[in-house]
Amino acid sequence: TGVGVVVVAAGSGQRLGHGIPKARVLCGGLTLLEHALRAVLAAELAEVVVVVLPPGDEVLAGVVAGATGAAQGGPRILAVAGGASRSASVRSGLDALPATLRTILVHDAARALTPPEVFHRVAARVSEGAAAVIPVLPVVDTVKIVEGDVVTRTPDRAVLRAVQTPQGFDAAALLEAHASAPAEHPAVTDDAMLMEARGTAVHVVDGDPLAFKVTTALDLTVAEAVLARTTT
Ligand code: C5P
């Protein structure tokens, strides 16, 4: 297929407040990582999947091993250790991919319930020739720029979009962008930013509300409700 997927799952989950890495948190009886890997496999587009884990996490290594067994005839699945920032973790994942891929998707494990259609929309746009593609949703809240406790500006909501993953890239372009970016930069919150910085056009496709990032306790409650709705 020429498609590789990097699933980043090395975050600490501090904002969820469970005291364990977020990917290990249970949701409807399965870890968030298991849900995320099911979603990636359900999309049936990857030839190889690299899962980036908190260093030394044997529980999550076991989850990846389990997914490998379940994916007989499916993609090759491997696990690597992540870094201190999301972009460092993505880089570890990219380093483990074979050099032969045409397309790379980078996906947050925390977007555990992402429907296959989002993967398909992103990958299709890349194979049509876009070097960088991101799934987006309209922004429902008014968003303000704040300095200290004072508002300095209100951007026009109509032109704002909330950005999800998987983000899809021409493989060579993404590898170049990561290779030339500074090593550790906490303000790099997604991969498309690195492409924008190089003047590469980043195209948007429709995201999906179900691709929300499980970040807070409320998000976990929502995810559990979604799963209860779809399994009964
Ligand atoms: O922290 P943030 O919400 O941006 O995390 C998005 C995704 O990046 C999560 O799936 C998380 O596990 C991953 N991440 C990572 N390594 C880090 C920080 C975040 O793989 N050091």
TrEMBL record:
GO terms for biological process: isopentenyl diphosphate biosynthetic process, methylerythritol 4-phosphate pathway; terpenoid biosynthetic process. Pathway: Isoprenoid biosynthesis; isopentenyl diphosphate biosynthesis via DXP pathway; isopentenyl diphosphate from 1-deoxy-D-xylulose 5-phosphate: step 2/6; Isoprenoid biosynthesis; isopentenyl diphosphate biosynthesis via DXP pathway; isopentenyl diphosphate from 1-deoxy-D-xylulose 5-phosphate: step 4/6. One of its GO terms (molecular function) is 2-C-methyl-D-erythritol 2,4-cyclodiphosphate synthase activity. It catalyses: 4-CDP-2-C-methyl-D-erythritol 2-phosphate = 2-C-methyl-D-erythritol 2,4-cyclic diphosphate + CMP; 2-C-methyl-D-erythritol 4-phosphate + CTP + H(+) = 4-CDP-2-C-methyl-D-erythritol + diphosphate. Its cofactor is a divalent metal cation. The record marks R15, K22 as: Transition state stabilizer. Belongs to the IspF family. Belongs to the IspD/TarI cytidylyltransferase family. IspD subfamily. Homotrimer. This is Multifunctional fusion protein. It comes from Arthrobacter echini. The gene is ispD. The chain holds residues 12 to 243 of 451 of the full protein.
